[in-house]
Amino acid sequence: MEKNQTTHPCDNCGEIISSKTLPLSSGVTIIPSGISGPLVAKIPVIIGETEIQIDIEAEFNLNEPFYEIKRIKKNVYLTQCKLLPRSGVVAADGTLISGKLFISGFVRKNIEYATADCIGDKVVSGRIAHTTIDVPFTAVTELEYSVPPVVSVRGVQTEIDLLSSCGCNDCTGTIMGKSGCEQYFEDSITFTETPYCELVGVRIIEDDINADPIKCHPDSKVQLYNKIIEKMVLYVKIKVLQVQQVNIPLTHTVKPDCTTTQYSDYEK
Where do the DUF7852 domain residues begin and end (predicted)? Predict the structure, then answer.
């Protein structure tokens, strides 16, 4: 490049660096195989599924006064999903019927809006800008179990009194009784698999209201806004699972009966 030659900022804009067509590669289909029952497997089990309705009202400002909202893209993220398995309804025989599910998260919103940088009698000109915000939410709901979770309760501590024929401080006597120099305890602990959540899907219904209006000039008919008031209904669908031991029985393959004549709807 010559010294006096200048480069325009858009000279390389949209330039294709490289492009090629890839050939088709052959593959071999592999049929998965596994062992047949009866067997015991340790697998995730769906203990409950729910769709939670969360009502949110938020108020926020953008970076600058805006003319109108062009588009809002939304995504939902969960930061907490915790089940308290024994906090709900328990049947008389001890079967768990429901538990409390705590969830927290946020709705990430990318807001595209139009500005009004140049306002004339018959034209409004501006830029398309954007702002990304996170709208938090928290909710608690009761989850009814389709399959009760397996919860092991810590057993009562057992203490055993040891026999001693003398005291700890004075072993010259012949006193027999509980030993004061030694203690024996027994604890029974069975650990429980922690239930976990899967975010299945979300539905978002919202109404965004432009608020805090301002005017650039007293005689101008163009209205700008500083604030957005948002009313949103969020539906979050969640599956709660727990790893459990499951008995898988022996499956019998039923061969088709060749003597039975099958007719289509057109032959009847």
Answer: 40-118
Q: Are residues 104 and 168 in the same domain?
A: no
Let me know if residue 80 belongs to a domain.
yes
- What is the rounded CA–CA span in Å between residue 249 and residue 41? 11
pLDDT (0 to 100) of residue 173: 56
Minimal CA–CA distance to 227: which of 15, 69, 25?
A: 69
Q: pTM score, two decimals?
A: 0.75
How far is it, in rounded angstroms, from Cα 159 to Cα 153? 19
| 108 in any annotated domain | yes
The string of pLDDT tens digits covering residues 192-232 is: 999 999 999 999 999 999 988 887 666 677 889 989 999 99
Q: For residue 70, which of 128, 31, 116 has the smallest C-alpha distance?
A: 128
Q: Looking at the domain assignment, is residue 260 inside a domain?
A: no
Q: Is 104 within 8 Å of 138 (Cβ atoms)?
A: yes
What is the C-alpha to C-alpha distance for residues 64 and 227, in angstroms, rounded to an integer?
Answer: 9
Report the number of distinct structural domains present in the chain: 2
Q: Which pLDDT score is estimated for 4?
A: 60
